[in-house]
Amino acid sequence: MTKGAIIAIIVLVVLIAAIIVLYFLGKRAQKKQDEQNAMLQQNKQTVSMLVIDKKRLRMKDAGLPAVVLEQTPKILRNSKVPVIKAKVGPQVMNLICDEKIFDDVPVKKEVKAAVSGIYVLEVKGLRKSAQTAPVKKKGFRAWVDKLQEKAGAKPLK
What is the distance between the alpha carbons of residues 56 and 52, in angstroms, rounded to a whole number? Predict the structure, then answer.
């Protein structure tokens, strides 16, 4: 065998071993995540809150309790997490939000949310204003409609 073939076989064996190791580590991580999600679902409560602000902040800058920072691994303390500043009852709290629903949470609105500890799992009920602003037309067609309205004619549809 040539040196190139031996090197290729060794690289191939190492890659196969790495894929097998990653497969089993992924299964273990998935099992842990399923257990944690089950525990979060078991402990969730529905609360009414007024969302004041939402941002993605570093864990140490988010104003979370010291216990939370102590329990997170040192590597993850600098990672950015979605944080919601909300008024729950008479208290203003910083809560960690689920990444999936972070974009859907409205700011300066009252919502009903499922919360487990300081983790917001889902936003259930949103109070929307009764009147929604009509979509304004743009361009030439809007200009023609505006002129017709001023003249007293019905706009064309």
Answer: 14
Task: Report in angstroms the alpha-carbon separations of 9 from 6, 17, 89.
Answer: 5, 12, 65
Cα angle value 55/59/62 (rounded, 5°): 50
Amino acid at 77: R
Q: 3-class SS at 113? A: strand
Q: Give the rounded distance of the alpha carbon of 96 from its chain centre.
A: 9
pTM of this prediction?
0.62
Contact call for residues 107 and 54 (beta carbons, < 8 A): yes
- Rounded mean pLDDT for each run of 10 residues along the chain, 157 residues in total: 92 97 96 92 91 90 86 86 92 90 89 90 67 61 80 67
Cα gap 105→26, rounded to integer Å? 31
Helix H or strand E segment including 54: strand 45-58
